[in-house]
Amino acid sequence: MERFKVCEREMKMAGRAGVAKPTDPKEKAKDDAREWINNSVEALTAKVLCNEAAERCQRGEKAEDS
Fold first, then answer.
1. Tens of pLDDT along 52-64?
2. CA 32, CA 51: separation in Å to the nearest integer?
3. Integer CA distances (angstroms), 29 to 16, 18, 22, 33, in order
4. How far does Cα 53 stand from its chain's mean position?
5. pTM
6. Cα(16)–Cα(66) distance, rounded to whole angstroms?
7. pLDDT (0 to 100) of residue 62
8. How many C-beta atoms lie closer than 10 Å to residue 53's C-beta?
9. Whole-angstrom Cα distance, residue 28 to residue 22?
């Protein structure tokens, strides 16, 4: 029950605008790594889509609406 109370308190604090949730250095490092990975995946996905569109244009295919 105590762990639930702690978790509930953290969730409420994280939901407040302008209030940063307290994190330890390990959690911050994990969050930074996760953010970097997500940003890298998004950038690579955008490049793949761009390359696929360029390839379709070279072949003379009509662009897909997606």
1. 999 989 888 665 5
2. 29
3. 22, 21, 13, 6
4. 24
5. 0.54
6. 36
7. 65
8. 13
9. 10
Q: Residue 18 above 90 pLDDT?
A: no
pLDDT over 90 percentage in the chain: 42
Read off the amino acid at residue 24.
D
Structure tokens at 61: 């295919």
Dump the DSSP string for the chain. Answer: -HHHHHHHHHHHHHHSTT-PPP--HHHHHHHHHHHHHHHHHHHHHHHHHHHHHHHHHHHTPPPP--
Residue 18, by phi and psi: left (phi above 0), alpha (psi -120 to 50) or beta?
A: left
Q: Give the type of residue at 36.
A: W
CA 29 to chain centroid: 15
The CA distance from 9 to 6, in Å, is: 5
Over the stretch 26-44, which tens digit does the pLDDT of each residue have?
999 999 999 999 999 999 9
